[in-house]
Amino acid sequence: MGTRILTVEDDERIRTAVKLALEDEGWVVEEADTGEEALQSFARNPADVVLIDIMLPGIDGFDVCRSIRRASDVPIVMVTARADTHDVVAGLEAGADDYLTKPFAPKELSARIRALLRRARSADPTVTHLRFGDLEIVPDEGLVLLAGEEVHLTKTEFRLLVELASSPGRVFSREVLLERVWGYGYFGDGRLVDVHVRRLRMKIEADPANPRHVITVRGLGYKLQQ
Amino acid sequence: MTTEPIPRPVPEGRPVSALPVETRSVTARPAEARPAAAPRPSTPPESTEAPSTPDGASVQTRTRTRRRRRASMIAPVGRRIGLRTRLTLTYGLGAAVLAAVMSVTTFVLTRDNLLDQRETASVTRAVGNATRIANQLPTGADPGTVETLITGLPSPEGAQPVLRYEDQWYATNTIDFGEQSVPDDLKEVVSAGRAARVRSTYLDQPYLVVGVPIPALGAQYYEVISLEDLQRTLDGLAISLLGASALTTVAGGLVGFWAARRVFAPLLDVGRAAEAMAGGRLDTRLPTGDDPDLDLIAKPFNEMAQALEDRIERDARFASEVSHELRSPLMTLAASVEVLENSSEDMTERARTALLLLSADVERLQQLVEDLLEISRFDVGAITLHLEDVVVSEMVIQAVSVLGRRVPVRYDPDAGDLVVRVDKRRFGRVIANLLDNAERYAGGATAVVVERADGKVHVVVEDRGNGVPEDERDIIFDRFSRGREGGNRAADSGVGLGLALVDEHVRLHGGRVWVEDRADGEAGARFVVELPVVEPTETGGDEDRGGDA
Question: Cβ of A26 under 8 Å from any chain B Cβ?
Fold first, then answer.
């Protein structure tokens, strides 16, 4: 069975058109027009990628995102109305891996989905086992251990950590991380990196306010402390 | 009773006719309290007309039009005297008139009163003296007796007795106050047997002359009383009143000036508030409730301001809402067109052509909606900048390469590593719009140049088109304006918001944009975006970006 994509969108025409476009890519598309329906569908049969419109009747996109994230590390793409509102940050905080603003071209959506799928399936094979103090990374197995305990990271968070770990101590600019982890160019949204770093810290830092592993280098980017 | 006339030579002094006789006249000049003509306020023709900037190519269009409009409104009023000056003058004039009336009244009443007193006293004494003469002078008295009698008459200082007895004139001081000191018409009246008094000027001094006939002796008794002391008193009074009037006038003017300022202060507030609103601060309001009279201005003003603000906000929101509503159908259109494109091989040639048209216009519509949304965000002030410190040359290179344009990017070695604080996505749009503009109207940009310019950095998009005429250099940054060159393009695919967005974006970044001729003298235009440079040492770009600009 091919890659399955769950689209949550209350506008039937948009949903249908997007479904047709995504099916042209060879993916199987499942539809849901409310948050409740989406959660039921996902519980029955988890999709490989979830596309959620934030504006939904009933429970909104943020809640759907949070609910799915609690149960799964599936890649989630949020659809927002505007790029410069707090919706974007709120969506990313809720657990989304990426976002798009309406109206977007389906080609753009396909590109984002492909990048997410790549991320979900691959890990850098050159790195085998890394240890930073109490933090252990086993890229082969997609495993991160903090003081011996397994830490659950989403695919994107994991990919971000491995990217930083590939050259410990080196400063990665937002642009570089955007390109390597998300497949964006220079004009990608730096907030993707910032919010994901924040989420990563919540999971792997003893005190996220005073990080010891993932360090911010003011004006330059982020690095993994050796 | 003896009536012995003693002839006495009367010195022929000056001709009697030379003595002006005024019956009941005022010798003192009435206090002329006419105010000194108030100095005309110097009102040079107000130079409200803004100095025109013949070649202010870089001046923002909007400020220019506003200035022009303002000048045309105020210019015709320039000559008139200002309200404040008029109020000051009115108060001053009013005070002057009032003071003059008061002064004149006071003076006239005082003078009449004093004169009356003096006359009454003089007449009583003269009659008394005449009676005494009638009683004491024996008939046919010799001149010596008459003189003795006259000298012995009780008369206060300044009162000179003169007696005509048996056609002879007797006096205590015959040299100065003999017959010649008595006016002729008084002589006539008294000779006719009636007592009379007259005020006259004699030897340049005011006098009161009282004549009493003594019928028993066929004589006439006169008394010449100096009014000089009275005159001095009245002169002093006049000077005092004049001074007081002048002071009152000045004080009135000052009160007027002060009152005008007080009255005007709230009006100046209104002016400032209106100016603030014109400058874009639409939430400006006047304070109300302090003064019921001022509320008459403040309340309607605030209502107007509110109505204006609502109206502008409504307009801006309307554009924003329309664009938002257009998103959903556009989304469907874009997705459907893509599905159709995926299977365009199966279509006929005609259908494929139609699909090409459809997809091109869907794209154009998408761009238009995107631009409209962006510009309406500027209008409602809902723009949030995600500022980052970036190396300007790198950003420009990236912006050009993302667009897939083959335009060379040049930069001076000393300009390449300058850092600017920008919202990358928006600045990318600035470059994109400028390149689009060059593409549409000038056959494409020839280069994008980064130059250092006195603490600023210039990002210049050059082309080899026909250039932009001087008079269009401002208006091409207006919304939906394309200039003459643009209007001629039949197959134009632009929507006319590109340069307006460039202008808004650049201004939001604290910079400016203008168009100029190419420096090398060849045909073509240079669109210059000027941005402030930040010190690379204190670079931001920290964790929490995306605050409001």
Answer: no
Chain B nearest CA to A180, separation (Å): 17
* Closest by CA position to A84, among listed B384, B8, B263: B384
DSSP-based three-state secondary structure for B137: coil
Burial annotation B92-123 (CB, 10 A radius, 16+ → b, else e): bbebbbebbeebbebbeeebeebbeeebeebb
Residues of A whose CB is below 8 A from B373: 82
Cα separation, B327 vs B373, in Å, equals 10
Band of the pLDDT at B26, cuts 50, 70, 90? very low
Tell me the CA distances in angstroms from B336 to A104, B106, B128, B340, one per residue in order: 12, 102, 135, 6
The pLDDT tens digits of the residues spanning B314-341 come to 887 787 777 778 888 888 999 999 999 9
Residue B428 and residue A80: Cα distance in Å, rounded? 21
| CA dist B121 → B126, B156, B193, B227, B356 (Å) | 9, 11, 21, 13, 126
Q: Is the separation of the CB atoms in A93 and A114 below 8 Å?
A: no
ipTM above 0.90, yes or no: no
The 10s digit of each residue's pLDDT in B347-399 is 899 999 999 999 999 988 888 888 888 887 777 777 777 888 888 888 888 88
Contact B206, B185 (CB under 8 A): no
A149 touches chain B (CB under 8 A): no
How high is the pLDDT of residue B170?
Answer: 84
Task: Please give the sequence-ordered ranges of beta strands (E in DSSP) within B124-179, or none if there are none.
Answer: 159-165, 168-171
Determine whether B70 is exposed, middle or buried from the number of CB atoms within 10 Å of its CB (0-12, 13-18, 19+). Answer: middle
CB contact under 8 A, A186 and B339: no
CA of B539: how far to CAs of A176, B389, B459, in Å? 18, 6, 21
- pLDDT at B76 exceeding the cut of 90: no
Q: Which residues of B touch A24 (CB under 8 A)?
A: 338-339, 342-343
Strands (E), B412-494: 419-423, 445-453, 456-463
Determine the residue of chain B that is closest to A193 in CA distance. Answer: B543
The pLDDT tens digits of the residues spanning B400-416 come to 888 887 888 888 888 77
Backbone torsion region of residue B16, taken as left when φ is above 0, otherwise alpha when ψ lies between -120 and 50, otherwise beta: alpha
Q: How distant is the Cα of A103 from the closest Cα of chain B, in angstroms?
A: 5
State pTM to two decimals: 0.59
Give B9's pLDDT tier (boundaries 50, 70, 90). very low
Interchain CB contacts (distance < 8 Å): A and B: 101
* Cβ contact, residue pair B545, A104, below 8 Å: no
Smallest CA–CA distance from A88 into chain B, residue: B546
Cis before A211? omega within 30: no
Residue A20 near chain B (CB below 8 Å): yes
Question: Which one of B331, B362, B366, B388 would you mutate to disrupt binding with A, by most A Cβ within 10 Å of its Cβ?
Answer: B331
What is the model's pLDDT at position B1?
Answer: 38
Residue whose entry in the numeric block shows the structure tokens 């216009």: B361
Tell me the chain A residues in contact with residue B336 when contact means C-beta distances shorter than 8 Å.
17, 20
Give the Cα separation of A6 and A76 in Å (integer): 10
pLDDT tens for each residue of B490-502: 344 556 788 888 9
Beta-carbon neighbour count of residue B353 at 10 Å?
A: 11
Residue A17 to residue B542, Cβ atoms within 8 A: no
